[in-house]
Description:
InterPro entries: Competence_DNA_uptake, RibonucZ/Hydroxyglut_hydro. By secondary structure, the protein is α/β, with parallel strands linked by helices.
Amino acid sequence: MAMGASSGSVSVRMYRGILGDCFLLRHGLDGGAVKHILIDCGVLQGVKNARERMAGIVRDLLETTGGRLDLLVVTHEHHDHLSGFLYERESFQKNFEIAEFWLAWTENPNDPTAVALHERFDKAKQALSALASHAKMAALKDRDFHIRTVMELSAFIGLDEAGRPTGASTLRMLKDKATPARTRYLEPGDVVTPTAIAGLKAYVLGPPRDEKRLRKDLPSRGAAKEVYLSDQADAGAISLHLNQLDNPCVDPCDVPFARPHYRPLETVKQQKPRDRTLTQRLYFDPAESQRQIDDEWYSCAETLALKMDSDTNNTSLVLAFELPDGQVLLFPGDAQVGNWLSWADQTYPRTPDPTQGGALTVDDILARVTLYKVGHHCSHNATLRQLGLEKMTDERLVAMIPVVTQVALDNQWNMPYPDLYDALKTMTKERVVIGDSEIAEETATFMKHQGADKNRPVLDYHPTGLWVEIRITF
């Protein structure tokens, strides 16, 4: 559903070396002014020199845009998509103008479903944040894999010096900067046009309204393959155990058994082995340590951390930008399986208007994707195969992956996921750029299969490797 015969170009700039999303789109019609769209701005907490790297990125953003963001998009409330606004808060508040701000419906403070969702998320985040910032947990990280997972995933939540999540306060700052009048909360099925950018419109594919879709982060192949929205019992259990770490005096109301049956483990641990009962000697036998349940609540914390990570990813705002000639640029944030599946739940727009050419299906949109921002750093469950990538059949398809492989390896994350990475290279004829590539090699591979199409993409890099940019003409 192309909008006309206007010609021009859009350059998609991906900032490198951050294991986070920060994309600047420079859109211009021939003879017109260049307009700027910033989609997310973040680096994973704990990445080496993260703040210095982000300071350089924001300086480049300011130099390139002159301080005017014609459209700002934040896809979801994760540190690796938001932290640039936090680290460079003073610069964004002082030096930048936000003409328009787009967020998902899940961030709308006047939406009852969104408010209820955040209440659940906030309780879980607070419990995990308190756990991750507790002094005793740092010592356990290297010897307990449950706690290690919690500590690693807390980097996506983002904690301040006091151990509190930073995402909500960062979003409030951006909303205040943009003002309510220029902030829009988008729903699946919306077809929207940026106020200040002619020749561009966006199809809003997600996040879904259906809670079953929001819950789903893995393919349906057995009960063990699915993870669901954060269990509030897990959050409560973590809070209880943290209180007991700091205060061994237990409130009788928190003990699941009547007092005659209660046996404080710490008291028994301090006894000499000869003073213990047979049951106690068997329980505390070093050879039986793997069977003890003292710290079983750590696995509860790990489960909650994994759920919170995927639940937040599934609230990602997903945008498909359509250029005047019908090409589509797909930005899915970190959407996981449920979000992707929901794209077929509605048409675009939801209510077809025959005078405007009717409505599109998600298949119509995916078939015209010529640039795909790969979701969640090319992880295993953030790009659908048959219902996603394999429907992106335009021969001009290129892909951009915001990942730093070494950082992923250091955290034992399989990013980029080999099978998906291979599939991307096949679908794009090896025109894939990645956040930590060897530039000369990547350029040679990218240019090898350009073809003769007049709209073929053009690749460019910052002199110091700060960013890579793909220019698409229309």
